[in-house]
Amino acid sequence: MKVFSTLYDKALVWAQHRRAPAILSGISFAESVIFPIPVDVMLAPMAIAQPNRAMYFAMLTTIFSVLGGIAGYFLGLLAFEPIVLPVIEYFGHTDTLLQAQRWFAEWGFWVIFLAGFSPIPYKVFTVTAGVMTIAFLPFVIASVIGRGMRFFLVAWLMKWGGPIMEKHLRQHMDTIGWAVVVLAIVAYFILR
């Protein structure tokens, strides 16, 4: 099934739209709070389509992702019981929240850094940081470092690889996409 390569082709077209930076910023913000799709799926095609602006796109993505993380932090801090907890319970993610809280208790700063850099859902940890009233400044610093490293790496790889990277990425997009889906399902069952 060629679902991901079709989406990738559309993302390449969208990446050249004049409002693409604004859309990228909005998706970066939303992805850190609620949006389920990683922003990399828009950042990578934009960096390939406009390599001279790749680092600018990475900077936008980092800034708005961290701002979204801050919104998630305050959502957890100020609206946990009336908003966040019912949603978590509705979707059956209470165990995931408890696991995230255990990781915070054990690892602190490094949990945010790893969640920011890795494909682990950053949004779960932004809200949990607020719930647990993790120190705000270390939270922001870890978010900037983790998210920045991830997005600048993606942009740099796309810029560096250029047309060759685009060809290989396009060729293997469905395999990569389905592998990410499988990993997400496995991670779900492990964290559950």
Helix-strand blueprint:
Elements lengths: L2 H12 L5 H12 L8 H10 L4 H25 L1 H11 L3 H14 L1 H9 L4 H10 L4 H56 L1
Protein architecture, described:
The chain has about 190 residues and is mainly α. It contains 9 helices and no strands. It is globular. The mean pLDDT is about 85.
Cα-based radius of gyration, to the nearest Å: 17 Å
The total number of structural domains is: 1
Largest sheet data: none
Overall 3D shape: globular
C-alpha termini separation: 28 Å
- Helix-strand string: HHHHHHHHH
* Unreliable stretches: none
Tell me what portion of residues adopts beta-strand conformation. Answer: under 5%
The chain-level mean pLDDT equals 83
Helix proportion: over 70%
Protein structure class? mainly alpha
Number of strands: 0
Question: Number of DSSP helices?
Answer: 9
Pfam family, one: VTT_dom
InterPro entries: DedA_domain, VTT_dom
Protein name: VTT domain-containing protein
Keywords: Membrane, Transmembrane, Transmembrane helix
